[in-house]
């Protein structure tokens, strides 16, 4: 019996050479965009990708304070919070920058992508914040295209190498925190692509731009055309390197003229050979093999193994005549001297600092099954990438009437710690007394039902939820979650709910916080009130 035309056509479609591989590339792009979309919040856009902590407080520049942006509670934030402020004033002419940015002369060196965000945002502060947040996303997409030169969609091994770079921890961390490392890797990749195509001027200009994005990108000048066996060409190559580094040097002179020398020029990131790596290994190993080891602890140790494997590949397989080997070994040498500030953390900044080495590793590892184990081990940084795409999520969820959800605003104050999340669980810890502020802007009364779970940090304690002098819910809670359910009518304006315990919080294990109770997976269901309050 012959196949039906529709089945025949579908079969031929799936049987087209390379189609499943091409579909896998496309699926990766869709998965990435889906992960990024989770960071969108109404009112603040994608600014949660910048990691701006509330500990910056009033030190933020005025333009950032006046622009809608997501703020992480009880957090100092991350480096992207400094770069977005540079993007708001890329000529460094605002005196507020001195107070807003730690070690301003050092961070201001990496100005290229701040200029890019300012340009994409058309000079409008609110748009600049969003442009800065999404610049890494745009660069990720362009990088995916650029890497097709070395990893075209013609086979599964190419897909493995392409995906290993695109979802390496360093790239994902750069996207998640709006850092300069991902965009800098894109410029390095484009420069090497053009140098391979014989477009030396275009490649040189791109490397110069990469240096303005991140100074260590200039190590990629090792990929310039160079014949170490022809001493007569050394001078020309040296002059090319000087010209490529000239824009960064001029910009650094401008910074020094405006602010003087940097208090910390970044030399604290370097130390004696292997001291930082060995220290990281000693710290990561116990966390990975402990009986109660966390997935993040094991992923951190996988990162240490992966970077060590990449380093050994370049050091044991000497290929000075290959362009990509010279780039890889330049960053491998830098890895030797990286110190504690780069390695510390879970898993730390080392993966993003060494991104060009990771790319060179995937380009150069020979093809074939014999090399597959090394390829997989060297790309274990992907194991830590999943932890970068956990978007901020409150411990409550607004449900019920759709129209009312847009008119009732919920905020926290008092003794709450920042929201936490694990898989589908969301919660906040309290010190012992915390407040939930409910603002009803609908113009009428709203019936609200709250459903969640409450538990204690240590043994049993009393938990009371009240509105003024009226108790809405109370019970004795322990370490096993207790179901919490009650309702109230919200009048127009603000209503304050007070969560209080009979005992103050205590320290549990190595956690530095004073913990009393937590409220988890709080559902706030809204519907029109049947009668006025």
The coarse overall form would be globular
The helical percent reads: 40-55%
Q: Based on helices, strands and strand pairing, what is the structural class?
A: alpha+beta
- State the low-pLDDT regions, or none: 1-15
Instruction: Tell me how many strands there are.
Output: 10
Biggest sheet details: 10 strands, mixed
Looking at the chains present, what oligomeric state does this protein adopt? single chain
Give the strand content.
15-25%
Provide the number of structural domains. 2
Characterization of the model:
With 533 residues, the protein is α+β, with helices and mostly antiparallel strands. It folds into two domains: 20-389, no CATH class; 396-528, Galactose-binding domain-like (Jelly Rolls). 45% of the residues lie in helices and 17% in strands. The protein has 21 helices and ten strands. The chain has helices spanning 5-15, 19-37, 62-65, 80-88, 97-100, 104-107, 112-120, 125-146, 156-166, 169-177, 181-196, 200-213, 234-259, 275-289, 295-316, 323-337, 340-343, 350-353, 355-364, 372-378, 402-405, and strands spanning 396-400, 408-416, 420-422, 425-440, 446-456, 461-467, 470-477, 482-490, 493-501, 517-528. Strands 1, 2, 3, 4, 5, 6, 7, 8, 9 and 10 form a ten-stranded mixed sheet that branches. Helix 4 (80-88) packs across helix 7 (112-120) and helix 16 crosses helix 19 (355-364). It is globular and about 90 Å long.
Features:
2 domains, Jelly Rolls, 533 residues, ten-stranded mixed β-sheet, disordered N terminus, alpha+beta, 21 helices
